[in-house]
Amino acid sequence: MLAKILMLLVFFGCMIAVGLYARKGASSTTDFVLGGRSVGPWLTAFAYGTSYFSAVVFVGYAGQFGWKYGLASTWIGLGNAFIGSLLAWVLMGRRTRVMTHHLEAATMPDFFGKRYDSKALKITASVIAFVFLIQYTASVYNGLSRLFGMAFDIPYAACVITMAVLTGVYVIMGGYLATAINDFIQGIIMLVGIVVVILAVLSGQGGFMEAVRKLSEIPSDVPATMGQQGAFASFFGADPVNLVGVIILTSLGTWGLPQMVHKFYAIKSEKAIKTGTIVSTAFAIIVSGGCYFLGGFGRLFDSEAIYKADGSIVYDAIVPTMLSTLPDILIGIVIVLVLSASMSTLSSLVLTSASTLTLDFIKDNIVRKMDDKKQLLYIRVLIVFFIVISVILALDPPTFIAQLMGISWGALAGAFLAPFLYGLYWKGVTKAGVWASFICGVGITVANMFFKFIESPINAGALAMIAGLIVTPLVSLITPKPDKKMVEEVFTCYDKPVHVSEKEYLKED
After folding, report:
1. Domain residues of the chain, as ranges?
2. What global pTM score does this model have?
């Protein structure tokens, strides 16, 4: 217990120290929200990865989908790496940095307002972001607190409040730069921790081959196998169709999440984007692939601890049950690992939400004259407000982790992914097309919350994203075209001549 407490104290001390260090570089709104648009590749890549993977993935998703699909759940982690990280950086990294800098857009709603010349789109997007980011934040608290309860026997409420206060302190002090530096430290902890945990868990089952053999012997009369012997040790699992839905939501969804895309706004150079692409993808392969791979062995830890009194499964209890058999020192490492993942995600969420509400909703709409100092004050106050609201929701969560995250991701990515992605490449996107995506994303997700026409909120979220990608161009083709002069001016950012060395570009003979 002493070792675990010391590890936590050192961890918390480092986070606060970074906040104090970064405070001097957060004197303006641009510095506080974007780190001065000069953040390097390693910090950006780790910030992207640690914001991507939190306790929601490690505890909620790894437990639930590992239980349902066995080792085939590893495909989710690989999808996160190659679709959610590699492809996102390749298709969106450079263009997002160039266009948002040209438009002087600091947030995703600000991008919509300036790219499509619509104040109404900007305000609506800020409201959507604020409302649905709160649910995601609650899921982060929930997953972390289950592990704290297992390791320290600390009340759930105490875990939630402690984590919220510590995260709020360093974000309020240092803004984006503090979160980026802390994300780098936390990312290193996550990389080392997940490898150590996998090796320890498999060792406790007699090694990798023995663990796989045990999975293959689970009888075919278990409902999730769909009558297939060895389904949990197979390549695609027993239910590849629903597995694809999970991959789509958790991988493609990041393309439309404000706190994820925000990382591309702040990166400093072309070289940084190239390096960041490689680092971010490698990080995702190890962390996300490792989490889902570990969760794939969840069936080997079937016990009374993961069931309610009525016999239903508590998916969020599966991974903590797996880890409860580890030595105390390894449990300490796990706690710091998941704490790192969760605090990095939480810091990104609160910063994104507070800056969006201040810059896109309050400024010029509620408060007409807002200078730079006042903007900073409002952002910091709203960080506190956002944390308090999310804590209240987390203390009485309406459902389990994966559902909370599915609802949040489905609404945000369903609404934002299509108009943001198309807006970077296609001049023909209209305001009506953007509105159609907003309505589809939020409408499908919210309607499914009440009417349950799709059983899984994960699949509902995937449907919302696909619908947006289809509806946006269709509506844009049949509605009045945007002002040609305005669109041409927006896209001039891609036509500016730049000078690069021959090692990056081969000129024609």
Report:
1. 2-20+30-480
2. 0.85
Q: Which two tokens stand for residue 58?
A: 């490690």
d(CA 18, CA 14) in angstroms, rounded, equals 6
- Residue 17 φ then ψ, to 5°: -60, -40
Q: From the CA atom positions of the chain, what is the Rg in Å?
A: 22
| Distance in angstroms (rounded) separating the CA atoms of residues 238 and 268 | 45
Secondary structure of residue 267 in the 3-state scheme? strand
Q: Is the pLDDT of residue 418 over 90?
A: yes
> Max CA-CA distance within the chain?
76
**Percent of the chain as helix, strand, coil, to the nearest 5:** 80, 0, 20
User: For the chain, first and last CA: distance in Å?
Assistant: 69
- Tokens 């709160």 sit on residue: 134
Q: What are the beta bridge partners of residue 506?
A: none
- The answer to whether 108 and 125 have CB atoms below 8 angstroms apart is yes
Residue 65, burial from CB neighbour count under 10 angstroms (0-12, 13-18, 19+): buried
Cα–Cα dist 167/12, whole Å: 9
Are the beta carbons of 342 and 55 closer than 8 angstroms? Answer: yes
From 94, 54, 61, select the one nearest 316 (Cα to Cα): 61
Each residue's pLDDT tens digit, 245-294: 888 878 888 898 888 898 898 888 777 888 999 999 999 999 999 999 99
CATH topology of domain 2-20+30-480: Sodium/glucose cotransporter (1.20.1730)
Q: How many CB atoms lie within 10 A of CB 78?
A: 18
- In the numeric block, which tokens belong to residue 464? 């919302």
> Which of these, 269, 43, 271, lies nearest to 177 by C-alpha position?
43
Give the separation between CA 65 and CA 72, rounded to whole angstroms: 9
Is 351 exposed, middle or buried (CB count within 10 Å of its CB: 0-12, 13-18, 19+)? buried
Reply yes or no on whether the pLDDT at 402 is more than 60: no
Whose tokens are 């994104």? That residue is: 352
Confidence of residue 1 (pLDDT cuts 50, 70, 90): low
Q: What is the mean pLDDT of residues 7-11?
A: 78
314-326 as b/e, with b when 16 or more CB fall inside 10 Å?
ebbbbbbbbbbeb
Q: Closest by alpha carbon to 59, among 249, 260, 408, 314? A: 314
How far is it, in rounded angstroms, from Cα 226 to Cα 237?
10
Give me the numbers of helices (H) and strands (E) for the chain, helices first please: 22, 0
Tell me the pLDDT tens digit for each residue of 462-506.
Answer: 889 999 999 999 999 999 998 899 999 999 988 877 776 766 655
